[in-house]
Every structure is written in C-alpha cells, then in structure tokens.
Design goal:
The chain is of the alpha+beta class and 139 residues long. Helices cover 40% and strands 12% of the residues. Strands 1-2 form a two-stranded antiparallel ribbon. A two-stranded parallel ribbon has the order 3-4. Strand 3, helix 4 and strand 4 form a beta-alpha-beta unit. It is globular and about 40 Å long.
Length: 139
Amino acid sequence: MRSACCHSPVALRCRIRSGRIRPGRIFAFQRAPDMAAGLRIVDLLRHHAEQTPNRVALRIDGEPRSFLQLHQGVLQVAGRLQTIARPGDRVGLWFHNCFAWVECFLALDLLGAVSVPINTRLFAFNTLRAPHRCPRASC
C-alpha cells in the first residue's frame, strides 16, 4: 500500500492545521499519477451521491442540499438541456448564487458542454452584446 502523496488534500489539510503552511502562500500542485485522466467534477458528485447520499454537499443562504438531492437535480437539468446543448457548445450562465446555477454548471459538464459564467453585475448593454462575440450563440 502506497503512502499518501504530500500534496493530497488530506496531507495538505494536516500541514495547514499543524502550521507548516502559512496562509497567503502559493503552491504548485502536481496531479497524482494514479488519478483517472478523464475524471470530471460530475463524476465526483455521482460518487458522493452513491457513497454518502445524505451528507450535505453545499449550503446556500443557510439552506442545505445533500449529495443525492444535488445529483438528482443535475440529472433533471441535464435531461432538459440535452436538446439544446451538445458536447463542445459554450453555454452562458447568468444567475445569482443559487442551487440552479450549480445544477446547470454540473449538468453542462455532464453533457460535455462548456459553462461560461456571466457576471450578474454587467450592464444590460454589455450583456446584450456578449452573445454576438461567440459563434453559434442563440438567445
């Protein structure tokens, strides 16, 4: 059995807690050689939904969402988006911080599309011009 890499999340957490890493420093992390090359964030969500379904995945404005609830929401959104988003498409997301933003972001990852977060503080004039800068944009 191999020991944990010194840059693994667990080792890093221990080094931060022990005081050996001070806040404000920048570290370059290398990818562990045994990690799967095609691992996506939606794959991690699926894994956690299977292993720890009732554990809280995230909270927004004090409202918790479990890994299972989040995964089910992502699958529902992906089902609706699959008719308009194809792999490689760029899809703009113009949301405030909410569960719908997270579900859309992960659903697009599941479909192979690219999420393009759009700043909600942009003025309407700039926002209306933004889709015309991208080929195949539709509003």
